[in-house]
Amino acid sequence: MTSEELAEQLRAERILAIVRASSAEEAEQRAMAALEAGIHIIEVSWTTPEAGNVIKRLSGQVPVLGAGTVLTPSQAVASWEAGARFVVAPNWSPGVAAQAQEHGMAYVPGVFSAQEVGAAVEAGYRLLKLFPASTGGVAHMKALADPFPGLQWVPTGGVTWENAGEWIRAGAVAVGMGQHLWRTDRPAEVVKALRSI
Fold it and tell me: Chain-centre distance of CA 158, in angstroms?
């Protein structure tokens, strides 16, 4: 999967579900709950116990499955071996980028400063994860977007159902949501509402 293909799917879906749990069983339950809510792009964080095995078990069930919090080249390779089609990180890593490219996976690096954005752009990346999104808010994304036009943003970290629409209206292709994803008793309805923006 290329970054362009992932960006296109994210724009259509508007949400990337981040599965991070204290056990493999809980992670799988959360992934299935996301699917039932109509979310088709899911990443399993490497901070989850047995993350590789969770990805393997979900492979074939999740339409677009990836790995998150991928910090090292070896984790990128393990993600691919487990069945991930894309990898996401909280930072920019040339080593992870190289392994993702070698194995045909989209790579979404995390950035926060202009220097980090510049490094990712110089390496050819246009789909970026703004992290942590809550620290600077929508204004921070807009400030970075001005000198770096044409980028595709996925704000993550502190995104909630209450402010997700604000990020989309500000130009984000999608939002990444983890713990706040489960804080609603009407998941399918709020997912549908976000896509209508």
Answer: 13
Identify the structural domains of the chain with CATH numbers, from first to last.
Answer: 3-195 (3.20.20.70)
164 and 134 in contact (C-beta within 8 Å)? no
Each residue's pLDDT tens digit in the chain (197 positions)?
999 999 999 999 999 999 999 999 999 999 999 999 999 999 999 999 999 999 999 999 999 999 999 999 999 999 999 999 999 999 999 999 999 999 999 999 999 999 999 999 999 999 999 999 999 999 999 999 999 999 999 999 999 999 999 999 999 999 999 999 989 999 999 999 999 99
- Rounded to 5°, the CA angle 179-34-152 comes to 75
Q: For the chain, give the longest Cα–Cα distance.
A: 44
Number of CB atoms found within 10 A of residue 92's CB: 22
Mention every residue, 6+ apart, whose C-beta is less than 8 A from residue 97.
107, 109, 123, 125
Q: Residue 12 belongs to what H/E stretch?
A: helix 3-13
Alpha helices of 17-122 — where are they, by DSSP H? 24-36, 51-58, 73-82, 94-102, 114-122
Instruction: Please give the Cα distance from 142 to 155 (Å, whole number).
Output: 11
Q: Is the Cα dihedral 14, 20, 24, 30 positive or negative? A: negative
Active site residues: 43, 129
The pair of structure tokens assigned to 11 is 């724009």
